[in-house]
Fold:
Amino acid sequence: MKLKASVIICSRNRAAQLGTCLDSIHEDEMLATAAELVLIDNGSTDDTHQIMEQHADRARYPVLVRQEPDAGLSRARNAGLDAATGDLLLFTDDDCYLDPGYIPLAVKIFESEEFDFGGGQAVLYEERDAFVGYNLFEHRRTLEPGRFIPAGTIQGSSMIFRRRVVEEIGYFDCMLGAGTPFPCEDIDYVARASFAGFTGGQFPELIVRHDHGRRTARDYENILRSYDHGRGAYYAKNILEGRLSFLFHWPRRSFEPERSLTNEFRSACRYVMMRVRG
Structure:
């Protein structure tokens, strides 16, 4: 079955980098697959929206530019879901660059195989950047429905869903994601898809280059702490919703530094309190 792809990119105040990201969307690949590009400006105060409009004006493939004034990556991703018209929804981030062939490869995988969602590798764009924000694996892996999925298995920089998954599980959780204390909206959405009965996959042939630009020790510590907070909320949410495999697997992650686990538990408590308060 021929699938129409929607490539969705959300951005907030990252005008300096967004142009390079958009340049990595190869026009011939978009035209060959009849794909569309969906750009969401998440309340930017710099030139982000202008760059999006300029790209739309010169592109030979369909580009939809929308605004989501309320800050928060989940809100922006949800605006992307509303705007997209494709059967296959491909998310990447505004500090990532797609490798050549990414879009047709993704379409081919989902046209020829029975995966409902999945993601590829995220490799560092700059070798001198801190070794964070990556997702490396050599072999394809099937994610069976209803199984425990560790945080980071599929990341928002390379995240793909069939339309039927979105129709079944709905929007991203606006309590989670960049702009909240809990940056884990991507893996939360993946887990929801899995526990709704959908089959996922990790595809090493799909590669994005993550240009996160963090190089100092402070940058490194800050991003690790942020990941800890996201994991804590992710595990807490799933335990609260009765997915007891998360209760079993979380304490078994003894390879994590003690500080990381402490941050996770604190974040989990904070998430529970915020959820109770509404």
The chain has two domains: 5-214, 218-277. Strands lie at 5-11, 36-41, 63-67, 88-93, 96-98, 117-124, 141-143, 159-162, 200-210.
